[in-house]
Design goal:
The chain is an alpha/beta fold. It is built from eleven helices and 19 strands. The strands form five sheets. Strands 1, 3, 4, 5, 6, 8, 9, 11 and 13 form a nine-stranded mixed beta sheet that branches. A four-stranded mixed beta sheet has the order 14-15-16-18, covered by helices on one side. Strands 2-10 form a two-stranded parallel ribbon. Helix 1 runs parallel beside helix 2 and helix 8 runs parallel beside helix 11. The chain is globular, with a radius of gyration of 22 Å.
């Protein structure tokens, strides 16, 4: 008997997760007070996929990060809908104008807020499940090189690829899009006290304005721990400028994918890079969902006492004054000490809870034969993201930062030695770079073989 042909089915939904006005905002430590208004509604955007044999759920949320306890609750709820934990992926956009108090493991969480947002994220998946219908999936990439910069080195790596997944109905209309691009949402600064999405909000608005208001647009940030926006001001108008550039390029790719799909009489297929470049020769890819979670334990730095930080700070400041010609070497070390000293009290509490190292994860979610999503549980430096892409056996490997956990900066060994803000804020020892790359390679290899 011939096996039944698998077909894609998809459902997508968006649910408002905006907190009450007055909550403190996350992302900057020197804000003057709580939020004073709502510039943008915050959302959880959910996409549920079926390949004929199983389901997967992808959620993006307009917050700076969601940590493992919240993700665990969402995954537990998804068991009711036969979505296993390894196929539930939850990523944050990393807006710096979202609510503070969502990271339970750092102490003093706002449990009412945690409860509300957790339930709304679960609700977004439930809503998406209620909209399941036959679908076609296509993936492609665009290019942008004008809105990002490496904030550590002028010639350092930055993300120039806008990755786009198109989910359309049988009528060819866009039902959902997943956009992946690595760029810090830090156009707005600490003096912004309105709740909002920063520039990623305009990715959503731009795509909807061109492809229909009913489309659900998921934005998943990438490996951008050291990639900042090139901004000409710190205003809401500037968030529109940058977000529209990214959104317009994603919308262009969505249009090209639709053209490829309609030129070929194919259904329920995720196009591969080969078939996009050579549509007459490329073999279409059958639906295939596979997921895996690779557990990792990240060893802590040794955090000094407040007095030791003060002494080291004074020592470096004196050295900078005595040797101004060496400021390019000394100032990053001083910046690192300042950043580490500020974050040490919270970090020490985490060390007390997990003295052997912080347990977390890397996830791989396979969509078809040529595309895999790989997660990083915090702020991943761009060069580590590139290494993960290079080590993957898939033609397309999209790295999603700020996903499934919120554990802070994940940086290269070189950045540890150099210092700087990222070197000070990273709570882990050197060697995390190789741990993450190896975990991602194991995860992508596993879902490739299964």
């Amino acid at each position: 008997m011939t096996a039944a042909k698998r077909e894609w089915r998809a459902g997508a939904a968006e649910v408002v997760i905006t907190p009450p006005v007055g909550v403190e905002l996350e992302g900057y430590g020197n804000r003057a007070g709580g939020s004073t208004g709502v510039r943008d509604e915050l959302y959880a955007h959910a996409l549920v996929l079926e390949d004929g044999a199983g389901r997967a759920a992808i959620v993006t949320a307009d917050v700076i990060g969601l940590d493992a306890p919240i993700v665990a609750r969402v995954r537990a709820a998804c068991r009711e809908w036969e979505i296993p934990p390894e196929r539930v992926l939850i990523a944050a956009t990393h807006t710096h104008c979202g609510p503070r108090g969502l990271v339970e493991r750092r102490g003093s969480p706002d449990m009412a807020l945690v409860e509300m947002i957790t339930r709304q994220v679960i609700g977004s998946i439930r809503s998406a499940l209620g909209r399941m219908a036959p679908a076609r999936l296509m993936a492609g990439e665009g290019k942008i090189d004008s809105v990002g910069m490496n904030r550590r080195h002028p010639d350092g790596p930055m993300d120039t690829t806008v990755r786009v997944l198109r989910v359309e109905g049988e009528d060819g209309e866009l039902r959902a899009a997943l956009v992946n691009y690595g760029l810090h949402p830090t156009i707005l600064n600490y003096d912004t006290l309105q709740i909002g999405r920063d520039w990623p909000g305009y990715v959503d608005r731009t795509i909807k304005s061109l492809w229909g208001a009913e489309a659900v647009v998921l934005f998943a940030n990438g490996a951008c721990a050291d990639v900042n926006p090139v901004k000409i001001s710190e205003t809401f108008a500037e968030t529109r400028r940058v977000g529209t550039i990214v959104g317009a390029e994603a919308a262009r790719v969505l249009g090209e994918l639709a053209a490829h799909g309609k030129r070929q009489e194919i259904h329920n297929l995720l196009w591969s890079e080969r078939s996009l470049k050579e549509p007459s020769n490329g073999a279409p890819v059958e639906p295939a969902l596979k997921g895996t979670i690779e557990p990792i334990v990240l060893p802590w730095k040794t955090f000094r006492s407040d007095a030791e930080y003060a002494a080291r700070r004074a020592e470096l400041a004196a050295e900078l004054e005595q040797r101004p010609a060496e400021r390019r070497r000394i100032r990053p070390l001083l910046n690192a000490i300042n950043a580490e000293g500020a974050s040490a009290p919270a970090a020490r509490r985490m060390v007390d809870l997990h003295p052997a190292g912080l347990p977390s994860e890397v996830q791989a979610l396979r969509l078809g034969d040529d595309l895999v999503l790989v997660t990083a549980p915090g702020e991943l430096m761009r060069s580590i993201g590139v290494a993960i892409e290079d080590a993957s056996p898939f033609a397309r490997t999209w790295v999603l930062g700020y996903a499934n956990d919120s554990i802070g900066y994940l940086i290269t060994d070189e950045a540890h030695d150099e210092g700087g803000y990222e070197g000070g804020r990273a709570p882990f020892v050197k060697g995390v770079e190789s741990l993450l790359i190896e975990a991602a390679e194991r995860a992508t290899s596993r879902v490739r073989k299964e």
